[in-house]
Amino acid sequence: MQKREEKRKKVSKDLRIDNILYKSSNLLLLETRRNEVDSDNVYIICEGVSMSVDNDNILCKWDPFMTIPTSAEYPNLRGNIINMYFPFECKGLEYAGEELAVYINFNIPHYKTVWLIGHSKGGVCFANMAKWISRRVRMDFISAPFGGTTMVDAELMKKRFATSFEYRVYQKLYKRHKVDLDLMPDSKFLANCDFSGVGRHICRNVISETRNVYEPVDRVCKYLNFRCLHARGDGIVTVSSQKKVNRLCKEVIYLDASHANSLGRFLSKGWEKYIID
């Protein structure tokens, strides 16, 4: 079976990004797939990762271990695919969401179905911007920290990690740019964000919890639940934080997954086997 990563483009310095649909300091949209057969449908997928390009569309900064999806990915989605990223210069999730709402309202009105799939901070961004979308759309929130996550609190994590090596690894993964700091449990963004628009759309909340070990990252995330979260969760976000928009959603699904693989499992063939009853 072909691994998910093998379908993706590895990032490197000086890589030119040729499929940019929209670019600003707050939002980057890439047209990953154009499907003429199912052109009535468009999916906007945000994995919750960041990258920036320069004026010549050359990749100049990106999150660690990031790869870029290609047209071979998402075989279960029938339609056009747009991938969304947060530039490192983004002023915050509020600004990214507002620009995306404008893009949806004015640039893709011809699609019969608009489906947004937001993982991690991408899900939080989508839920907050739902109030600005003028048409009814579908949304999936996956592993989304609606109540924030202490994993972005560097001082707290320094106390909770058992070894200095663990903390050094953590520092490489978390760069503390503004979209990450928006997820601090006491952030100004979370105190003022408005998820009420979620109820106007067809929304599904996919809550991930690492229960079984199917691959090495699951074992790491189970350890993070114990060492850093002190609660049930996916290794990065607690279950209670993910549940905060449940009452506004048409459907809630619990998935046996870690934060790193919940999106991949949810979009894979046979994903139902990971559902927690």
Give a structural overview.
This protein is of the alpha/beta class and 277 residues long. Helix content is 26%, strand content 23%. It has helices at 93-107, 121-129, 154-160, 164-173, 178-181, 188-192, 216-229, 239-242, 262-266; strands spanning 9-10, 20-23, 28-33, 41-53, 59-62, 67-68, 80-86, 113-119, 138-142, 202-209, 251-256. Strands 2, 3, 4, 5, 7, 8, 9, 10 and 11 form a 9-stranded mixed β-sheet that branches. The two termini are 27 Å apart. Residues 1-5 have low confidence and may be disordered.
Q: Secondary-structure map with pairings?
A:
Blueprint: E1 9-10, E2 20-23, E3 28-33, E4 41-53, E5 59-62, E6 67-68, E7 80-86, H1 93-107, E8 113-119, H2 121-129, E9 138-142, H3 154-160, H4 164-173, H5 178-181, H6 188-192, E10 202-209, H7 216-229, H8 239-242, E11 251-256, H9 262-266
Parallel strand pairs: 4-7, 4-8, 8-9, 9-10, 10-11
Antiparallel strand pairs: 1-6, 2-3, 3-7, 4-5
Helix pairs in contact: 1-2
TL;DR of this structure?
About 25% of the residues lie in helices and about 25% in strands. The protein has about 280 residues and is α/β, with parallel strands linked by helices. Strands 2, 3, 4, 5, 7, 8, 9, 10 and 11 form a nine-stranded mixed β-sheet that branches.
